User: Fold L-histidine N(Alpha)-methyltransferase from Pseudaminobacter soli.
Amino acid sequence: MSAPTSRALKRSDPPGTSAPILQLSASASRAAWLAAYEAVRGETERRAAPLSAEDQVVQSMPDASPIKWHRAHVTWFFEQFLLVPYSANYRVFDERFPFLFNSYYVSAGPRHERPRRGLITRPDVERVTAYRQHVDAAVRALITAADDELFATVHPILEIGLHHEQQHQELMLTDILHAFAQNPVLPTYDSGWRWPVTAGKVSAFAELAEGVHTIGYGGDGFSYDNEGPAHRVLVGPVRIARQLVTNGEWMHFMADGGYETPTLWLSDGWATVQTEGWKAPGYWREVDGARFRLTFAGLEPVDPDLPVCHISYYEADAFARWAGKHLPSEAEWEVAARSGMLDDAFGQVWQWTRSAYLPYPGYGAAPGALGEYNGKFMVNQMVLRGSSLATPEGHARNSYRNFFVPQARWQFTGLRLVDHPDKAALMAAPVQKARPAEMEGGASFDFAADVMAGLQARPKRIPSKYFYDMAGSRLFEEITQLPEYYPTRVERGILAENAEAIAKLLPAGRALVEFGNGSSAKTRIVLRAARELSTYVPVDIAAEFLQEQAEALRLEFPSLNVLPVAADFTRAFDLPASVRTMPRVGFFPGSTIGNFEPLDAAGFLHHAGQSLGTDAVMVVGVDLVKNEAVLHAAYNDAAGVTARFNLNLLARINRELDGNFDLDSFEHRASFDRRHSRIEMHLVSRAAQRVSIDGYSFDFAEGETIHTENSYKYTVDAFRALAREAGWRPISVWTDSDGWFSIHVLANEADAANQPGSWRP
Assistant:
């Protein structure tokens, strides 16, 4: 059987060539209703056209259905609910078909068992085609001839029938792809098919402030009953990823033992992994050491930049836990989508949420058989939002609630992540209580909320950015002078050796923006060489220490305009007004990039690129993989300064959050985790104990830890790959003679593409 491929699948087709948006009303012209009907029914046939009669009868698993069955079932729907009750003189095509092609409508009569649909070899494909033609003719006649009163009654049934068929159009594609995946020859559906164009590599998170929002469908057009009633919900604060998780990120999860680490998985999920032998997403294959996946175009190499696909809820949840994040709730997803915060919300992959599929407040199923459409499935399933590359045009909206059992992964399903503090911790955080002045600008609430959330997490953790109050900043400067602590010493040597090359990036009229300046000791090396530089913007969370260093720089460099910004540079912040129109160069020394999780590191670099502008360059210090003995000594110095630095975090909690940590009851521990290629710093409880913070209690078992810092160690190639993912083009890299440390020069991708020579040192 030869016919053109479904237009809904081909990226090269212009918009609007498949089914139109179906938001018609009873007052719409009969011609409009006929056009909508013809478009939807025609799309089903276009999707079936590339398939042989043998393809159309196969059922590869109980959850899938043969293509022939889909074509007949959606036809039965019109016959059963529209023609039989409302079309006078309609003749049922075949009295046996309701039993064969009813799905789950108990009120409509008995039906064939779902797992045995593949055994329905007769009626054959030609007979099903004749069935469709018979019903099409009757529906056309009903649309044309019905008087206004009758049409007002039947048009809602016609409408839901069209949307119902669009749902099955997507199932046709997912079911045939699953069937092809079981075939050793891996058939091709469409050799010219390509994955739809994505929004690109954007690892940033969008901030969704706390607020009460309306979710659910509240318009006058069509929606399924499970999308309503529209109602108000409390959402946020939450940071939601603009981008979908990619194949490349998923491969990091796999390489890190994601499928072999039971602590990442829900109990049922881990049992499923063991039973099914999952080691990768659905349809992935390994051929001669390379990864491929089955697509509509056949077996293709896994593209690391495309969204990961064919994953179950269990896998999505495990990945989120591995990444230190969460899946969004369906309310968070919908509010963010309505606000335009999400890239590729539609047309790529359905996105798992952490929300169970349950009725909205005030929901009631419609009477009769059509009331079975959604309501009776509201148990033991999880909600997905968005739409996929297989979803017909016009069949997606912000309020649409898809749902599947958590182990399902033959659909085009992927994920995006969110990051937010625990709600209970937010409620517990002492937001009304005044805090010391050094925490000005709202940082008090962030510190309290993050501490409360982190100590309720398992395992306990506190973000490393909170090391740097005044006392912590001074202790860290002391660390940089220690003989064991090589990063500062080695990086200063690289900077001094290449200072003139860096200075060429800083001609007159440009501003240098440093993320986390600390004592500005390394910055001074650059400032002394960059004699034409007029403006320097240090950004740091420790406001008092920042002002102190800014005053010192003004004295040392009287012609330099020093404009300090007290802010958490890992979040959005405002640059001084005078700098916003200047070309900018970013400076991020000290291997602070290693304190981020890799996903967050890419997100930070992307955010920095947006702040710095399209003509920006960034200079980044990156610690490299090296002998473990060197690393151990650097983070466990003989003088115990690093231990005091780590313990100062508890002292800060005592000072600012009314804590009662006994510092002698905790000890510093730092060790190298080979699997993750990172140094981990922890505070270890010496005994079972209970600690109070602002009246809230937290229990510690003996040996239990608070994870306070990671310091990832990269290879040069690994960091360059990370920078590319974040939208930067690597230009140059300098290292010391031992290969212990590196300094990278990166150009914003847009600038690098347009002016490759203008920023080369």
About this structure: The mean pLDDT is 87. The chain has four domains: 7-181, 205-221+232-360+381-418, 423-471+629-712, 472-628+714-754. Residues 7-181 form one domain.
